[in-house]
Design a protein that fits this description.
By secondary structure, the chain is mainly beta. The longest helix is centred in the N-terminal third of the chain and has 5 residues. It is globular, with a radius of gyration of 13 Å.
Length: about 100
């Protein structure tokens, strides 16, 4: 399916939480935004979760398993631009855009 203006996976990258009930979304915070070197993630009500970073074309940039409520991801090697962070845990997920400068 080429829904995102002919770009495969754009819909998956941007709407990764589609299909989940409102009360099943994860609550998380990222900082700083914009980020330069390291992006920090705080997951409220921690459960075993995975982090995925994708660009706006849906290309997977990084994956990481959260070991506790707080995690960080090295962003120093990324090109400047807009990215999406996706956090999944069991049947819950949430996404947020961030800027790399």
């Amino acid at each position: 399916d080429h829904y995102g203006y002919g770009i495969p996976n754009l819909e998956d990258a941007y709407n990764a939480s589609a299909g989940f009930a409102e009360n099943e979304l994860l609550d998380f915070t990222i900082y700083p935004n914009p980020v330069q070197d390291r992006l920090f993630v705080k997951l409220d009500n921690y459960t075993n979760a995975s982090i995925q970073i994708v660009d706006l074309l849906g290309k997977r940039i990084a994956n990481k398993e959260m070991q506790d409520q707080y995690s960080s991801i090295d962003m120093a090697g990324l090109e400047d631009g807009v990215y999406i962070i996706l956090i999944r845990s069991d049947n819950k997920s949430a996404t947020q855009k961030f800027i790399k400068q």
